[in-house]
Amino acid sequence: MHIAPNIAAKAQKIKFLILDVDGVLTDNRLYYSDSGEELKAFYTRDGHGMVMLKKSGVDIGIITGRTSKLVAKRCQDLKINHLYMGVPDKLPSFLELLATLKLAPEQIAYIGDDILDLPILKRIGFSITPADGEAEVKSRVDYVSNYIGGQGVVREVCEIIMRSQGTFQQHMDFYLRDLAE
After folding, report:
1. Is 27 annotated as a binding-site member?
2. Residue-wise pLDDT tens digits, 102-148
3. What are the chain's domains?
4. Is 22 one of the annotated binding-site residues?
5. What distance separates the 2 farthest-apart alpha carbons in the chain?
6. What is the pTM of this model?
7. Does residue 113 have a known ligand-binding role?
8. Do residues 129 and 113 lie in contact, with contact meaning Cβ atoms separated by under 8 Å?
9. Which residues make up the binding site for substrate (predicted)?
């Protein structure tokens, strides 16, 4: 994976990754069953990327405009403790999180896909949107992913951060270890 030097410099500083849900962790579509139950599909490779990133020392949070039991369950499964749901104006939650974590804005990365994410995207150290993010967002972020929302954007960003910080190889070494010894 080639990482441009300017992107690697931004990613090296990251201590916390914030994610939007719809259009980032999911494919941006809402699914409902006949009974009205909301359904979402999460990409498992994104989930494993988050697990590796957390093991590498970069924590993760979610700020989403919608409220969903499915998102709460996914956060529980991935041990994501910083979850803000039902906040259409995401900036106050971001500022609260920043104060709680005692981090500088340049230590934060954020993946968002729509114009409601811009108030955060313009205030942080490393801003990212999926390949299918809104044009107004694409023109204002540091990095446009090679992947669309719900299909690998989070994994790609996790790997960019880990590779830039020199922590990715420890995960490869673990999976490539020789168990015959």
Report:
1. no
2. 999 999 999 999 999 999 999 999 999 999 999 999 999 999 999 99
3. 5-173 (3.40.50.1000)
4. yes
5. 54
6. 0.94
7. yes
8. yes
9. 22
